[in-house]
Amino acid sequence: MPLLEDGRLRPDDWTHVEDEAPLPEGPAIVSLARLRAEAASLAGRNAPLGVALPPETQPEEIAPFLDRLALIAVKMPKSKDGRAFTQIRALREHHGFAGEIRAAGHILPDQYAMLLRCGVTTVEVPEGTKPETWARSRDTIRIAYQAAQGADRPLSLLRRKLELA
Amino acid sequence: MNALTPPQYARTYRYDEIDREFLQERIAEFRGQVERRLAGELTEDEFKPLRLMNGLYLQLHAYMLRVAIPYGLLNSAQLRQLGKIARRWDRGFGHFTTRQNIQFNWTKLEDVPAMLEALAEVDMHAIQTSGNCIRNTTTDEYAGASPDEVVDPRVYAEILRQWSTLHPEFTWLPRKFKIAITGAPHDRVAAQVHDVGVLAKRNERGEVGFEVHAGGGLGRTPIIARKLRDWVPEAEFLAYMEAVLRVYNALGQRDNIYKARIKILVRDLGDEFTQMVEREYERMPRDKYRLDPEIVAAIAAHFAPPPFAALDDQPLPEDPEFRQWAEASVRAHKKPGYASVTISLKPIGGIPGDASAEQMEAVADLAERHSFGEIRVTHVQNLVLPHVRQEDLHALWQGLRAAGLATPNIGLISDIIACPGMDYCALATARSIPIAQRISERFASLDRQHDIGECFINISGCINACGHHHVAHIGILGVDKRGEEVYQITLGGSATNDAAIGELIGPAFSYDAVVDAVETLITTYIAHRAAGERFIDTYRRIGVMPFKDALYAPA
Amino acid sequence: MSTKAKARPATAPVVFTANRLRDGRVVWFGAEGTWRDRIDGTTPFAPAAAEEGLALAQQGERDQQVVGVYAVEVDPAGPTPLKFRERLRVQGPSVAAEAA
Ligand code: HEM
Ligand code: SF4
Predict the structure, then answer these.
(1) What ipTM was estimated for this complex?
(2) Of B85, B84, B104, nearest to B94 (Cα)?
(3) Which of B26, B166, B285 sits opposite A93 (nearest CB)?
């Protein structure tokens, strides 16, 4: 699946791994169940490790694993289901997670700017996606009334120019 | 002065360059989305949440555009512009709602970007008037004017408006989210039946803080809110709101829209909900969310009192017809010599909450002449001129009369709340407007209405309860019974400090019988009332039985 | 919205209604595959043909002409919808819908 970062498509070097399947050599995203069951052996791997965080899971539940994770994939089962926004913000704000946060599932270009402001890094998009649509949607509104994640200044005014990384 | 320039002293929040730029960007975004939709690049399923975020519904006969009137505040230039929009892109009228918004019922999709541009000319928009996001915050229509006010709620309603506008985390909530805020001990905003109800107050040192309630609501599961906290300090207001919304966004139900409102979560979790909010609040980086006193001061400056003259209270002129109107419509003001005036949008036999373009213009003119150019929209679908000199009241009344806006029925039985019902609404199970019209015609005699006294009738055309029927003294809910419209009656609801959900009185009445049933309820009240008792007082004293007996007694 | 038609098999003849995408006005599906402003003169589908009719009508959604296609049971005389809600869709609001 194509991957979107900074409004551009880029190759995805991560593999989603089924629970029963053997782990590949390179970067791998496993399920939460597998992460829990095989935490010790997974930690011993040399390649980067990621986990798919189901929408109903609170980020606290993966806190013990965070220092071993290079990627967390959150999922929007439907574009209307916005639980991922709170998960992403909590991962950045409460847990200080600095790795890649990737959003997958049914996501509209119109949600891109808000995902970025909550702290997302990449979005898995369907084949045939026009990255310009996403970039345009990200850039249309440059003003925000709230602080975004990763902003270095505390919110000293209710509003300020939106600074997308 | 240009027609789009608001009068100098009208205290509505004035946009600055950043706000205007934001709005232009937002319109550009929606214009693009409409173009993509019309070109077939967006399916209806994809477009629907986007149009809803811009206040655009698809109704029974057409699209409907719901425009935000932030916390019910308008200046005369804005009201005049709403009139212009009604004339140019609708059928010459608009419908004011219980959420202090206005709806245009005959909107065309292809016109919407132009309508939004016309709104932006007067710092207005339709953002977040629909969809599963934080909606327009509502507040007291007498803010800044009422003698019992402790804290000016407009300041914090504006802060909430800015904070909630395109909030990156809370725009895809499980369900819509409505906040009401009041700054007076007498609750005029129905705080306890909102997702979050806020009571702004002061401590002994005079500092501002907030009592926060959550989980109230009407709809198919009416629930009175739970108090989360007695006191949230001003600086922590947004942090605390963030905490409430975070818990809701993470845990609110997603798979059943009838259980997705925060009220269900709060009801199911009980005190655990409060604890979760507190835990989130404790651990968040509070500096980042702190509400700076400088911001509060900057926003409060928008709502500084207009230059009131030093006046004395005045006796009203002797004209009896004027007196009858004044008794219903005029309310005490915190400044001597001034009064607040409620303008009825409930003419006998009219459509509750509707105003024509001409009426909007007439009210705008009168507001400029008599109320520093300020108008408020009330949650019972009327308008208010907040600051009128008592010596001007008679002239104002004549002006209103000329525009057909002087029905002296505020708070009386024909001051009915009615949702659009099946005449417009795609979700309705029955009509509500014609019921309101026929009740108001039945009680057309103003002497009789004044004799009956305060009595709130609210009508909804389906269980979603947009007409607030649960919290009416007499609530009417239209339902479909095998293809026929029938109406259930509830008694004893209240939306103020003593908030209560009305009690269903018995089997439903047919379209033709419901007005007679209301009349029977009223004659029963008259027969039983003690001196000085309102309908609700008598009901509370004697209970439901006498009313039931009168309605269902074998003939 | 478009799921409504599937809710329950038709027991009476049906016509199809929708709102026009551009302006939201109520329209009715004519047998020739066109969408018309008035219900008069549309040819109802027999109950057994309702699903087939729906598929034809939904082409209007795919062509981005209309939104919210659904079936309306009718008395073929007219045709006239059996339900009050759709009769209102035919005649417009039962209350004054223009400024007085
Ligand atoms: C005409 C188009 C309208 C539609 C489609 C509509 C739809 C709905 C729906 C579906 C709900 C229930 C939401 C839920 O419980 O999750 C609701 C609630 C509500 N509506 Fe409307 N509505 C409309 C018009 C209005 C109008 C005109 C008013 C004001 C007069 C209004 C005021 C409200 C209020 C105050 C509630 C909240 C009740 C609660 O706490 O659940 N609505 N609306
Ligand atoms: S109560 Fe029902 S009928 Fe009335 S406006 Fe709300 S959704 Fe429509």
Answers:
(1) 0.92
(2) B104
(3) B285
